């Protein structure tokens, strides 16, 4: 089906003439992606994309949502600014976002395969001429009832192979990308080659449970970067197609990307500082409620600073302020910061009881090197509790 393409920019409003069916689709299926309001004139609507970039397919319209930050800065938010394709394509090519992520996944899969795929212990049901492992009594009794002299034992035995979540997840995501008709031949060839070492790994869906097991496994630490990218791609495919019925869309949540970029900036800022550690989305229970701050910086084990990323204009909204004050209570930190995107680093602070609250701008536009330097300067200033110039 040929769809008309409507190009919009994240967080910017554009008036577009749409058929009623498209308006109904945006209101019912994509309200969290594109805000729709009546425009001036019959069939005219005001479209304001929320914090996503990528492609969303409606019944008759393809919505191409571009980022308000330059292509190089978008790649920086996704952790891809240092990759070869980023230098090769300084401006955003049409439809390049998914290709960039596919190329990065292929590179990550090649890297873990080059170091040696990590196997794990599991269980396998097998028919064996010898009794080993654990007998599957129900299957054995059924076999005995069917044949007078069964010649096989139905057993479950422990095995050590590549059938593990940290191997199944990359294969599942790579196969999902290869099913995309809009993937470039370059990305398709790279993924196909990267899949070769995973040939023995069974095909299985990349579920949340699979991710959780893979990310907790210490032996699979070398897979961390690949698993993070797999989650980004899997979530992007699901966000654009929640009903799994129109595999043409792909969306990246810039709010989540900004959170990951903030965590990476904090880790770079404290690198080489003895006693300092950064925790990405630690969990704290308070009765039946669980609190998950975006970034927690510890100093000699004690909570020193909470950073909470907000992909929107500098606030604070009352709800945001209530949120970070709750983080201060559950973590014990006496300094919490709401971090917003900006062009230059900066901050302003005020006190709420014993807690210092800071509204900070993390640079996300301009030369990537300057953004990184400015971000590290900002985090170090927050840790020192001194004003940040800029």
Helix content: 25-40%
In round numbers, the mean pLDDT is: 84
Shape: globular
In the CATH hierarchy, what is the architecture of one domain at level 2?
3-Layer(aba) Sandwich
Helix-strand makeup class: alpha+beta
List strands and helices in order, with pairings.
Layout: E1 4-9, E2 14-17, H1 20-28, E3 34-38, E4 44-49, E5 52-57, E6 61-66, H2 71-77, H3 84-88, H4 96-115, E7 120-128, E8 134-135, H5 137-146, E9 153-161, H6 165-178, H7 185-195, H8 208-216, H9 224-240, E10 250-253, H10 254-270, E11 276-280, E12 284-286, E13 289-291, E14 295-299, E15 302-309, H11 318-331, E16 335-342, E17 346-352, E18 355-363, H12 368-384
Parallel strand pairs: 1-6, 15-16, 16-18
Antiparallel strand pairs: 2-4, 3-4, 5-6, 5-10, 7-9, 8-9, 11-14, 12-13, 14-15, 17-18
Helix pairs in contact: 4-7, 4-9, 6-7, 6-8, 6-9, 10-12
């Amino acid at each position: 089906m040929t769809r008309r393409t409507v190009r919009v920019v994240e967080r910017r409003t554009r008036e577009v003439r749409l058929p009623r069916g498209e308006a109904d689709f945006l209101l019912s299926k994509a309200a969290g992606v594109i805000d729709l309001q009546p425009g001036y004139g019959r069939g005219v609507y005001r479209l304001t994309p929320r914090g996503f970039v990528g492609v969303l397919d409606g019944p008759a319209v393809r919505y191409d949502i571009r980022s308000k930050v330059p292509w190089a800065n978008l790649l920086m938010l996704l952790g891809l600014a240092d990759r070869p394709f980023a230098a090769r394509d300084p401006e955003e090519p049409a439809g390049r976002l998914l290709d960039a992520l596919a190329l990065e996944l292929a590179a990550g899969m090649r890297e873990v395969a080059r170091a040696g795929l990590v196997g794990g212990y599991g269980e396998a049901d097998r028919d064996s001429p010898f009794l080993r492992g654990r007998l599957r009594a129900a299957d054995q009794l059924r076999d005995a009832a069917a044949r007078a002299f069964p010649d096989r034992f139905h057993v479950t035995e422990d095995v050590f192979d590549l059938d593990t979540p940290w191997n199944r997840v990359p294969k599942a995501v790579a196969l999902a990308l290869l099913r995309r008709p809009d993937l470039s031949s370059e990305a398709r060839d790279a993924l196909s080659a990267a899949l070769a070492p995973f040939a023995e790994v069974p095909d299985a869906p990349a579920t949340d449970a699979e991710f959780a097991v893979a990310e907790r496994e210490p032996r699979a630490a070398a897979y961390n970067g690949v698993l993070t990218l797999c989650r980004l791609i899997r979530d992007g495919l699901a966000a654009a197609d929640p009903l799994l019925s129109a595999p043409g869309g792909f969306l990246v949540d810039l709010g989540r990307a900004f959170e990951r970029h903030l965590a990476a900036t904090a880790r770079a800022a404290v690198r080489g500082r003895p006693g300092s550690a950064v925790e990405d989305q630690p969990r704290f229970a308070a009765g039946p409620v669980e609190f998950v701050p975006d970034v927690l910086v510890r100093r000699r084990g004690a909570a020193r600073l909470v950073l909470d990323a907000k992909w929107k204009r500098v606030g604070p909204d009352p709800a945001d302020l209530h949120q970070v004050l709750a983080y201060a209570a559950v973590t014990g930190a006496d300094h919490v910061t709401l971090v917003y995107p900006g062009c230059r680093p900066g901050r302003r602070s005020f006190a709420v009881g014993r807690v210092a609250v800071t509204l900070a701008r993390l640079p996300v536009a301009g030369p990537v090197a300057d953004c990184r330097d400015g971000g590290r300067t900002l985090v170090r200033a927050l840790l020192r509790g001194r004003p940040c110039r800029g």
